[in-house]
């Protein structure tokens, strides 16, 4: 019986620790993008003017995560301080400018459409610690001025903040930022994406 009582006490203590005393309070997170390092200008990129459009097709458009208590039950919502479509648009535009591409809605030669179908953090509970796991699913297409499709690809990325003790907004934010950064890395590492942009000027 003594061992059983000790086990129960450990579970209750862990639950209380991960509950954090604020699981019932809605959290707002600032999802910040970290620009890629070592980026150089792409030859002939200056002559390609891009129009970036990001649409939000997620099933859950309001929140990006939910707090959980020590038993894995969803509690208060975790909301983004900025519309996630705007956050992604800024990230894509930043990386385009870093590579020498121009940006304009009116005078663009090419339109980049990014469609977010998933961007959400879920907390995975463990016995002594948990993980914040953010998943990103984004479809990207490129069209020239005539409306011809030059590129289409689906990107999946993941961000994990491991061994956390609190299932709160701060840890969700870290995982979401990692997923955003990985998504941008995959997009701009795709040589066919850059090639399609350059093709638009022909």
From TrEMBL:
<protein>
    <recommendedName>
        <fullName>Lipoprotein</fullName>
    </recommendedName>
</protein>
<feature type="signal peptide">
    <location>
        <begin position="1"/>
        <end position="23"/>
    </location>
</feature>
<keyword id="KW-0732">Signal</keyword>
<dbReference type="InterPro" id="IPR005619">
    <property type="entry name" value="Uncharacterised_YajG"/>
</dbReference>
<dbReference type="Pfam" id="PF03923">
    <property type="entry name" value="Lipoprotein_16"/>
</dbReference>
């Amino acid at each position: 019986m003594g061992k059983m009582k000790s086990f129960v006490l450990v579970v209750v203590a862990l639950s209380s620790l991960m509950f954090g005393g604020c699981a019932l309070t809605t959290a707002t997170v600032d999802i910040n993008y970290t620009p890629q390092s070592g980026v150089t200008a792409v030859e002939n990129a200056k002559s390609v003017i891009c129009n970036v459009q990001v649409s939000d097709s997620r099933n859950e458009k309001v929140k990006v995560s939910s707090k959980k208590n020590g038993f894995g039950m969803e509690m208060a919502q975790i909301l983004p301080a900025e519309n996630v479509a705007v956050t992604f648009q800024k990230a894509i535009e930043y990386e385009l400018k870093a590579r020498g591409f121009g940006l304009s809605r009116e005078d663009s030669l090419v339109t980049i459409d990014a469609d977010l179908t998933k961007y959400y953090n879920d907390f995975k509970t463990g016995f002594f610690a948990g993980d914040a796991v953010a998943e990103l699913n984004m479809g990207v297409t490129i069209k020239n001025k005539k409306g011809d499709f030059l590129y289409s690809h689906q990107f999946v990325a993941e961000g994990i903040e491991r061994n956390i003790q609190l299932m709160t907004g701060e840890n969700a934010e870290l995982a979401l930022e990692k997923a955003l950064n990985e998504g941008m890395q995959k997009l701009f590492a795709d040589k066919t994406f850059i090639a399609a942009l350059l093709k638009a000027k022909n």
